[in-house]
């Protein structure tokens, strides 16, 4: 079991999180489409490449990480597209070895209690004014005092196992819901915008104001959207901008992207509940787990799928017209 834990730690520490570079950026763009809510097309100011959705540049790892979850000090690198499954395995092994150590120490103390007649001692009871046997709690505390180093190790192992187990369950929940740790913080910001009634959904309508169906980008390939679906509410922005100038404009730039197509008639629908917002990265529990266990390869390969005559994808051409530096 100890060897298994060390092996999991070595694997999680040695396998990279999934670096995005100029050779594989197009593959990453195909794997993770932009939702124009959490992620918009933008350039990484450090790597000088387009940032795919769900990616993040890590200043400690000095790279753009695909589907970045967080930077982990335990394995001294980021947890991302390639090594998230091994990180989860390492957490499981850590919980296992902590609680196994606690179990062994418990049996050591229990064997000492059986060999020592202390649990047969009688003590005066303050409640009934008569002699009674020692409680298991007092016997166990006596064992901790008799061997403080072993007792401290038992307490540490049990608490460490509990903390890591809670962290493991938290990660399992995020995986099942199709959210990374980094995205979870972004969703909290979106939730605050919904509570302040600052988020609206754009719906395409005809000249008479009737709905014509989902936005154009939902009718096409989701990797190449042409219209935003969610934007910050302008009246709320103007009201708050008097209190926090400059901050609101950046929020709207984050949730909206200009289209190179002709403008469509759009109707704004105020979002009042988080469940009205669709997370396009949530494909269901089983698919989310399978995509974690068997992630698509990020190895660059010679391919011209989705490229125009100039060797660029449609997304790249669209972003070049209005690049935003990270």
UniProtKB/TrEMBL annotation:
Keyword annotations for this protein?
Acyltransferase, Lipoprotein, Membrane, Palmitate, Transferase, Transmembrane, Transmembrane helix
This protein's superkingdom? Eukaryota
Q: How does it sit in the membrane?
A: Multi-pass membrane protein
A GO BP entry: protein targeting to membrane
Q: What residues does the Palmitoyltransferase DHHC domain cover?
A: 41-187
The EC designation for this entry is: 2.3.1.225
Q: According to its UniProt record, where is this protein mainly located? A: membrane
Catalyses: L-cysteinyl-[protein] + hexadecanoyl-CoA = S-hexadecanoyl-L-cysteinyl-[protein] + CoA
Spell out the subcellular localization from the entry. Answer: Membrane
Q: What are the transmembrane regions?
A: 89-110, 150-176
Q: What are the GO MF terms of this UniProt record? A: protein-cysteine S-palmitoyltransferase activity
GO cellular component terms given for this protein:
endoplasmic reticulum; Golgi apparatus; membrane
Q: Enumerate the residue ranges of region (Disordered).
A: 232-262, 302-326
UniProt domain comment = The DHHC domain is required for palmitoyltransferase activity.
Family stated for the protein in its record: Belongs to the DHHC palmitoyltransferase family.
The name on file for this protein is Palmitoyltransferase
